[in-house]
Design a protein that fits this description.
This protein is an alpha+beta fold. It has one domain (2-97). It contains two helices and seven strands. It has helices at 21-28, 86-97; strands at residues 2-7, 14-18, 33-36, 43-47, 56-63, 66-71, 74-78. The protein has a five-stranded antiparallel beta sheet, sandwiched between helices. The protein has a two-stranded antiparallel sheet with strand order 5-6. Strand 5 and strand 6 form a beta hairpin. The radius of gyration is 12 Å and the shape is globular. The protein starts with a strand and ends with a helix. Residues 2-96 form the DUF3846 domain. Pfam families: DUF3846. This is DUF3846 domain-containing protein.
């Protein structure tokens, strides 16, 4: 089991334990894509791109300088596949708070 953060649209981010990619698929409601944000080094965002345009998550992602919006549930994971640390979770919370 690893610790990740889940962010549902219009809800606060929350820690959760997952065991495998099947858990991620269930959490995001289908097949997922891996995104990165230029400001979250070492953290990946897992999202279901089929939800684009539905249930905006109210925060943008910036990749290679290009801005895009996140839709549907988003799972924040450590890019190396290990559990998020308390420091990682605080960094993600600050990142999300900067978009309010």
């Amino acid at each position: 089991m690893i610790t990740v953060l889940i962010k549902h649209p219009h809800e606060d981010v929350a820690p959760i334990q997952i065991k495998d990619t099947d858990d991620v698929t269930r959490l995001v409601g289908g097949d997922f894509e891996v995104l990165a944000d230029d400001r979250l080094d070492g953290v990946s965002l897992l999202v279901n791109e089929d939800l684009r345009g539905v249930a905006a998550n109210n925060f943008p992602v910036t990749t290679d300088g290009f801005l895009d919006w996140v839709y549907g549930p988003c799972v924040f994971v450590k890019a190396d596949g290990t559990s998020l640390t308390d420091e990682d979770m605080e960094k993600i919370r600050k990142y999300l708070a900067s978009h309010v």
